[in-house]
Specification:
The complex is a heterodimer of chains A (207) and B (281).
Chain A lengths: L20 H8 L3 H23 L2 H17 L11 H17 L1 H6 L22 H20 L2 H12 L4 H8 L3 H18 L4 H5 L1
Chain B lengths: L10 H11 L8 H13 L44 E5 L6 E7 L3 E4 L2 E4 L3 H7 L5 E4 L4 E6 L3 E12 L14 E11 L7 E5 L4 E13 L3 E14 L5 E5 L2 E6 L6 E4 L2 H13 L6
Antiparallel strand pairs in B: 1-9, 2-6, 3-4, 3-5, 5-7, 6-7, 7-8, 8-10, 9-10, 10-11, 11-12, 11-13, 13-14
Classes of the chains: A mainly alpha (207), B alpha+beta (281).
Chain lengths: 207, 281
């Protein structure tokens, strides 16, 4: 299993590499074409983060919609000289954390057992060459997803932002209002917890 | 990604890390994606128009977190001088500077050691500066505003070092309060930012809201007038406190209290709101 496509590549890009400064200026003016470019560039990351954080399609959709609503409302304050990704991911993360801590969020929460079959097939971009490889990959994905879902929320945040969104610990610390060493320590504890959760399935996941 | 980020991982942890990184991007339902894209491009998503108010949305009544009433925490008559630290760490992309919005009451303020009458508004305004040390007596209230980002009000007696205007990404604003009462309202340039208040009893995370924070020797009380504030002992144990509620955290380690907003505090917040009505327009 290779690294996430975004992982490690970000630092080689200039800030705002997904959209040009001129495009971001147009986003500030809420020009439809530029808004479409912004949407296309970041929708996948926002939705994936919301889905992985919340573990439910409907909730991920609600949060993604709210993120783009807030972005539209605040488009005029976009800093065109910076990559908008941290801003967008901060909004997403804050909304997820608020949802987790709301009474409704706790009621909606349905933690999967690692032995559960998913309620619906997760739509993951297919990379497998054969149906058999695809099935193995899907099983690995299911196990990991269930294990991530069982992580305490504070741990899940740092794992998802670091490993799936490719953000360094310093940046995550800024996003969630923690000190970088605390985030780094929590990330290490999260990997340890994942290892425990996957103890009976490790060969399936790490092969 | 810095090298430090990957230090001290065992081979197995590194394998796990790679496995997590290998999880593919989750693909959304095509119909949902396309509909949202059209709404976002056309502006239909924002039926109310661009924001002129805080992005913090009121929380539905059924989201209210209730805990048993255990003890009354409303004795706020005298705020005792203590050396508790309260920090606001504020992350934001915009650029602005702190300015005086209002000063009310009578008495002598000390700003960076320079004494000035609260009734001399121009003189007070001239002394407002990032990271100023402010000492105000009882009966004096002062509001400072940072562009359309947020307005911070203090009510004497207060002894505090007000926020700086730091550089960097993210920008980190810090307030140190030795004694006093703070009121905070976020503005339309706040979305995507976070304010974090730390006291000896706990922490408050704000993602768009209107709150009052009281700190004395015995406790920290956070009253939420609008939106939601995440409040708790540490980052792992936060409660979402919605509008109309407050959370009291006690210095002696007693269980925190979550209950309805204290009428006196609500009144103070409403006054603060009234004094700053339209400030972000």
């Amino acid at each position: 299993m290779g690294p996430h496509p975004d992982h490690g590549a970000r630092q080689d890009k200039q800030p705002s590499s997904l959209l040009t400064v001129a495009e971001l200026e147009s986003v500030r003016r809420r020009e439809p074409q530029a808004l479409g470019r912004l949407f296309d560039a970041y929708f996948g990351r926002i939705y994936s983060l919301a889905y992985r954080m919340m573990g439910q399609e409907a909730t991920a959709q609600d949060i993604t919609q709210e993120v783009f609503l807030r972005v539209h409302k605040a488009a005029h304050q976009l800093d065109v000289n910076r990559d908008p990704a941290p801003w967008l991911l901060t909004i997403t993360t804050n909304l997820c954390r608020e949802k987790w801590r709301s009474k409704q969020g706790r009621q909606d929460k349905q933690t999967l057992s690692l032995n559960d079959k998913p309620e619906h097939t997760e739509r993951v971009a297919a990379t497998a060459a054969t149906p058999e490889q695809e099935a193995v990959a899907a099983d690995q994905s299911r196990l990991l997803t269930a294990a991530l879902d069982r992580l305490p929320e504070a741990m899940r945040v740092v794992v998802l932002l670091h490993d799936m969104q490719g953000l360094p610990h310093d940046e995550i610390a800024g996003m969630i209002g923690e000190e970088a060493p605390a985030v780094r320590k929590r990330y290490s504890r999260a990997l340890g917890k994942l290892r425990e959760l996957l103890a009976d399935h490790r060969p399936d996941v790490l092969e | 990604m810095s090298e430090r980020d990957n230090m001290d991982l065992t081979p197995e942890e590194r394998q796990l890390q790679d496995a997590v990184r290998g999880l593919g991007e989750v693909r959304a339902d095509d119909a949902f994606r396309e509909k949202l894209r059209q709404q976002f491009m056309s502006g239909e998503i924002d039926a109310e128009g661009p924001s002129t108010e805080s992005a913090g949305e009121p929380v539905a009544e059924d989201n209210i977190v209730e805990m048993p009433r255990r003890r009354h925490g409303g004795r706020w008559g005298a705020l005792i001088a203590v050396a508790a630290a309260l920090a606001i760490i504020f992350l934001n992309q915009g650029a602005a500077t702190w300015e005086l919005q209002n000063v009310r009451g009578q008495g002598t303020l000390a700003i960076n050691g320079q004494e000035v009458s609260a009734t001399d508004r121009d003189a007070v305004a001239a002394l407002i500066a990032p990271q100023m040390h402010l000492v105000a007596p009882e009966g004096v209230e002062l509001d400072v505003v940072l562009g359309k980002v947020m307005v911070v009000g203090v009510a004497g007696p207060v002894d505090a070092v007000m926020p700086d205007l730091p550089e960097g990404d993210p920008r980190v604003f810090q307030v140190t309060v030795n004694t006093g009462e703070f009121r905070i309202k976020t503005g339309p340039d706040f979305p995507g930012s976070q304010a974090l208040l730390l006291t000896t009893e706990g922490r408050v995370e704000i993602t768009g809201t209107s709150v009052a924070v009281f700190k004395n020797a015995d406790l920290t009380c956070v009253c939420v007038l609008e939106g939601t504030a995440l409040i708790g002992k540490d980052g792992d144990n936060l409660d979402a406190i919605p509008a109309g509620q407050r959370k009291v955290m006690f210095a002696d380690g007693s269980d925190p209290l979550i209950t309805t907003i204290e009428p006196g505090h609500k009144h103070g917040l409403l006054e603060f709101e009234a004094f700053n009505q339209g400030i972000f327009k």
